[in-house]
Amino acid sequence: MTLDTGIFQQLEDTIARVVRERWVPAEDHVEETGEVPENIINEMKELGLFGLTVPEEYGGLGLNTEEEARLMFEVGRAAPAFRSVFGTTIGIGSQGLVMDGTEEQKQKYLPQLAAGDIIGSFCLTEPNAGSDAKAVQTTAILDGNEYVLNGTKRYITNAPRAGLYTVYARTNPNDKNASGVSAILVEAGTDGMTTGKTDKKMGQKGTLTSDVIFENCRVPATQLLGHEEGMGFKTAMKVLDRGRLHLAAACVGMARRLIDDSLAYAMERKQFGKPISDFQLIQAMLADSETELYAAQTMTLDACRRRDAGENTARVAACAKYYATEMVGRVADRAVQIHGGAGYIAEYKVERFYRDVRLFRLYEGTSQIQQLIIARDMIKNAH
Ligand code: COS
Hints:
The chain has helices spanning 5-23, 27-33, 38-47, 65-75, 80-90, 95-100, 103-115, 232-268, 280-308, 314-339, 350-356, 367-380, and strands at residues 120-123, 139-143, 146-157, 164-170, 181-187, 193-195, 209-220, 270-271, 274-275. The protein is α+β, with helices and mostly antiparallel strands. The structure holds coenzyme a persulfide (COS).
């Protein structure tokens, strides 16, 4: 723990209450308008949610991975759009800077990110580089004391509202390997940088993604993360190792919500003269979901604790992300089943969450990429 236990407990309780009393009642509004209300975003800032993982010396709370996960267990109980507002800023959009930025870069951007004055965004994926992340084609070529960026980034979370983009681009176009990729910090509004139209998605209304397009976009050479070329791919991988634990925890939260809603419905809904929760086939679904949630929660916490203890957690983070995201898919499917016909009707929200959780198995590495990371590590370490 990095925070005093009592203070952390207070924060956890406050977030749980805000989720319950403020975010959940606003879910329909977000679904209808595609926007998280401004007053809720302001409350997020006041609560310090944008600075949870930013070190204290830069204005954040400096939470360790376990603490972050425990808070995401609460945050995950509301529609994913709420977490997404600050999720990239405390996760993949800031952690490259925290891990590998120079002191000057940290001082310039981290306090603004922690305060929620600017939103951080992580620009890795491209039209031709998704699972094969080192295939990025966006270039950042040094010209005098500036980098000139050209290329397109795709499906970038929070791109339409971000203030700072960590852009993974090829600084050495002759090097097609990971060593040719660097991370460049680009501020919103820089000439030559635009965002595309906001993507229409299967679910997760209110989470914003779009292209980020660079056309001869010039940034000072000092914007190279860590002032070192060729380190971008490794930074991205380290960032994703932590990001995957954050997502695993969010899935645990969403599963908790779905199970709680399913249990409440099953205890109230009567068929054959009694609540459907009295029927063993319904009980089996509830029990399977509860068991899988417990497994995912335990796995996520264990992986977080190992990371906080300094272990290399690429494999266990992949295990947690893989298991938790698949788990919440199964839980959402059972939640629809337990709700019966109501599970297909929008006002019960279950069908919405069923669509929302589908994304977790895709981004920050598909389930298949997690399997690949796990198996490759097993083979590498076999004697
Ligand atoms: N931490 C630190 N360094 C890492 C790392 C990690 N977790 N994973 C890989 N690296 C390093 C490797 O050690 C290697 O360094 P050296 O060249 O010095 O040996 C370098 O990065 C390249 O690694 P590797 O050869 O394993 O890369 P591959 O292209 O074979 O595969 C995968 C890497 C598939 C794991 C990677 O591309 C990946 O995670 N893809 C999914 C990307 C993703 O999540 N996309 C979603 C976008 S964000 S929403």
